[in-house]
Write a structure and sequence with these properties.
By secondary structure, the chain is α/β, with parallel strands linked by helices. It is built from 9 helices and 15 strands. The chain is globular and about 40 Å long. InterPro entries: AcgluKinase_fam, ArgB, Asp/Glu/Uridylate_kinase.
């Protein structure tokens, strides 16, 4: 059965519109499975500021001390995930929240503990957990937190987590939602872009800032076997599409 993975932002109202749920229903009605991975950086920053905990970003990654990790867990699992899950339920979908402690769902390792603290990268996805949820006709709402084999929790970039989940599920499509309609060049939104073109766009500094981790996550997914990746601001719009057919081996 075809699976579509969608990474949404933590601010549910930005992505979870009537049009969003119309598209999800259309997918479900045609027999497709839908998996949601969510972020939550806005709310984490808001809570850290409220608690007077310094916020430090290093190359797009949030430096995560033990204190910051506790806030991240609290916000993502205690606030953002339930909020998103409840909106899905309001629109008539059966949804259930999943995170790292659900039978080692997302396994990971530290990227650079000395420099970044409890920030990790995915080493393995327990896809069986997700497949069991999908088989019960639930939509999994996944928090991008991981866990090391020693039991340490990790803060993982949501785009990177979504790409690894899509790869593990052999997903047909991955949507990485952002606040712009895609990748822009010469005042034009690109309908598609190849890996070769991506390299040039990065060298020309057309792809910069927050778009870099999204593009890198997209490439990870494509080379991992995902059929198609969309960089877009809505699942009802194709945005900029990257496909494996364009990879030259």
């Amino acid at each position: 059965m075809e699976t579509i993975v969608v990474k949404i932002g933590g601010v549910a109202s930005d992505n979870l519109t009537k049009d969003f749920f119309k598209q999800v229903k259309k997918w479900k009605d045609t027999g497709k499975q839908v998996v949601i991975v969510h972020g939550g950086g806005y709310y984490i920053t808001e809570m850290m500021n409220r608690l007077n905990i310094p916020v430090t970003i290093d190359n797009g990654l949030r430096v995560t001390t033990k204190q910051a990790l506790k806030v991240t867990q609290m916000v993502l699992i205690g606030q953002v995930q339930p909020a998103i899950t409840s909106v899905f339920q309001q629109y008539g979908f059966s949804a259930i929240g999943l995170h790292a402690s659900c039978n080692d769902l997302i396994q990971g390792e530290f990227i650079d503990q000395e420099k970044l603290g409890y920030v990790g990268e995915v080493t393995k996805i327990n896809s069986q957990v997700i497949e069991d949820v999908l088989a019960s006709n639930y939509i999994p709402i996944i928090t991008p937190l991981g866990m090391t084999i020693e039991g340490d929790w990790l803060n993982i970039n949501a785009d990177a987590a979504a790409s690894k989940i899509a790869e593990a599920l052999n997903a047909e499509e991955l949507y990485l939602l952002t606040d712009v309609p895609g990748v822009k060049k010469d005042d034009q939104w690109l309908p598609k872009v190849s890996p070769k073109e991506i390299k040039v766009l990065k060298e020309e500094e057309i792809i910069i800032g927050g778009m870099i981790p999204k593009i890198e996550s997209a490439m990870t997914a494509i080379f991992g076997g995902v059929g198609k990746v969309h960089i877009t601001n809505g699942i009802q719009r194709a945005g900029t599409v990257i496909t494996k057919e364009e990879i030259l081996v």
